[in-house]
């Protein structure tokens, strides 16, 4: 009767009674599959996202498990993050997620952002430990690097560090833009040639966002053809959507013969005028990871080549394109 009496006496008092009380130290996240609550910052983290271990390592949190995506890197950790891993040997989860494996690691947080797990899988995992998914307005793959860093920073109790890392990375890109003010407003596209298919990555993808961070504008046609996806496949008879001021090939050296053999690539002005930059395996992987660790790494490797490609002189050699054998 006590609650009923308060409800009669006043709405505000009633709300105070029926609203659930949140512990002061709880960390709450609303995401695509519901809500996750941490009673304390996480320490034992299973990273199921294909790239989220990068962000955890940047925050000085070594996950007890990482997820294999591609390449032949120990524990799925690429060169830009190896120093953060140190001597640790996390469990590498490959293929479908084994619930038994995850449970055996006794995590206090499972990171499912960028993992592609289903809601049914989430339901099982969340019974093992609090499981964190992408924000409701984000696709399964594609949470921006800064949002991911801040989210995981909160989850592991390192929000101040996360904010500092974000500011540092943003400043790195700002300094690059300041060094190359002529890049602002020029168009750029990150393209791929893989398994007989050629296309471009949209502005919603990490590779497109990397170019935007440098001041470049996306090619509208790529986004239109992508229809909300992270890439747009093109007809081999029409590669005109790739004819931007800057064309960055995000491909491995194994793809070079097919790339060279593309007839319609030869008519692109970007090719004829030497405005192509080639990202080999490691740099292509860094752009694909699109993390707070990999993006500055990619920028350091690509900045000079981009400057040479856009110096206005078609005769200027772009070393990455020459080395790959795709220069005009």
From TrEMBL:
Keywords: Ion transport, Iron, Iron transport, Signal, Transport. This is ABC transporter substrate-binding protein. PROSITE patterns: FE_B12_PBP. Belongs to the bacterial solute-binding protein 8 family. GO terms for cellular component: outer membrane-bounded periplasmic space. Residues 1-23 form the signal peptide. It is found in: Cell envelope. Residues 44-310 form the Fe/B12 periplasmic-binding domain. Pfam families: Peripla_BP_2 (PF01497). SUPFAM superfamilies: Helical backbone' metal receptor (SSF53807). It comes from the Bacteria. Its main location: other. GO terms for biological process: iron coordination entity transport.
């Amino acid at each position: 009767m006590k609650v009923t009496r308060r409800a009669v006496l006043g709405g505000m008092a009633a709300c105070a009674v029926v609203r659930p009380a949140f512990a002061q130290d709880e960390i709450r996240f609303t995401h695509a599959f519901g809500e996750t609550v941490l009673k304390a910052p996480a320490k034992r983290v299973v990273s199921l996202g294909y790239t989220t271990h990068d962000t955890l390592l940047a925050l000085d949190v070594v996950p007890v498990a990482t997820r294999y995506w591609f390449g032949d890197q120990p524990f799925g950790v690429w060169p830009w993050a190896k120093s953060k891993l140190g001597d640790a040997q996390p469990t590498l989860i490959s293929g479908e997620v084994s619930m038994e494996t995850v449970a055996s690691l006794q995590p206090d947080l499972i990171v499912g952002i960028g993992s592609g797990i289903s809601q049914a899988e989430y339901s099982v995992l969340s019974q093992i430990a609090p499981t964190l998914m992408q924000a409701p307005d984000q696709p399964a793959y594609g949470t921006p690097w800064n949002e991911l860093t801040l989210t995981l920073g909160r989850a592991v109790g390192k929000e101040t560090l996360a904010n500092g890392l974000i500011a540092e990375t943003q400043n790195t890109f700002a300094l690059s833009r300041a060094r190359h003010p002529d890049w602002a407003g020029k168009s750029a596209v990150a393209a791929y040639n893989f398994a007989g298919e050629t296309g471009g990555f949209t502005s919603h993808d990490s590779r497109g966002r990397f170019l935007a961070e440098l001041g470049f504008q996306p090619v509208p046609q790529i986004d239109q053809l992508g229809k909300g996806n992270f890439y747009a496949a093109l007809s081999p008879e029409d590669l005109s959507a790739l004819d931007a001021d800057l064309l960055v090939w995000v491909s491995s050296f194994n793809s070079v013969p097919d790339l060279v053999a593309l007839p319609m690539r030869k008519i692109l002005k970007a090719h004829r005028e030497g405005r192509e930059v080639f990202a080999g395996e490691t740099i292509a992987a860094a752009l694909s990871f699109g993390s707070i660790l990999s993006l500055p790494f990619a920028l350091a490797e690509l900045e000079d080549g981009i400057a040479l490609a856009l110096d206005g002189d078609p005769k200027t050699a772009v070393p990455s394109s020459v080395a790959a054998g795709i220069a005009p």
